[in-house]
Amino acid sequence: MQSLALFDLDHTLLPIDSEYEWGRFLVAQGAVDRHVFEQANERWMREYREGTLDFARHARFSLGLLAQHPRTLLDAWRTMFLREVVMPAIRLPARQLVDAHLRAGDLCCIVTATHRFLTEPIAGAFNVPHLLAVEGETVGGTPDGEFTGNLLGTPTFGSGKIVRVTEWLAQRGQRMADFSRTVFYSDSRNDLPLLEAVSHPVAVSPDATLRAVAESRGWPVIELFAA
Hints:
The chain is α/β, with parallel strands linked by helices. Helix content is 48%, strand content 19%. The longest helix has 19 residues.
């Protein structure tokens, strides 16, 4: 039987928070007011660490940044961002981890709370064929349409990751129970619902709460970004 390998992205496969770095990049381009971004980010990060984040509100803010600019300009900025920020941040141990699952023939999917516009090419950089991410509404519903700033569907955050994985597998005519082994790699306490739902949870450079849970339950703890 085939195995299922699920990966969180930020601070798991990447040693950075891609959404935060994207915001900083937009500030540098003059596309976002620095004070507005820093004030909002301080609040989001504090709530994220505390496990109290109103994620739908956060997603609307992030998607709203996209809605302020034409798609052609966003696409050009994204290309620059990937080249200058993301690609230099990808570390060999993270690539090797993903490659091992791909070579084994596992069904691989990145499940991230960052929006698809930003993470789709990052998934491509890791050669991961499937991506579940926050979905933003576009004018006319086209993949390359202008963003409206509205959130579509269930966000891939907290227990929402289980919902989205279940829906995705159902579309493929599959269930998690159909796999001989299900593994999920994450750094965050906010991913405990999905970590608890798989047969092989793995904590990657985990936050303090997740590290404590992993150690108490005997889950593997790995470090992909050690100097």
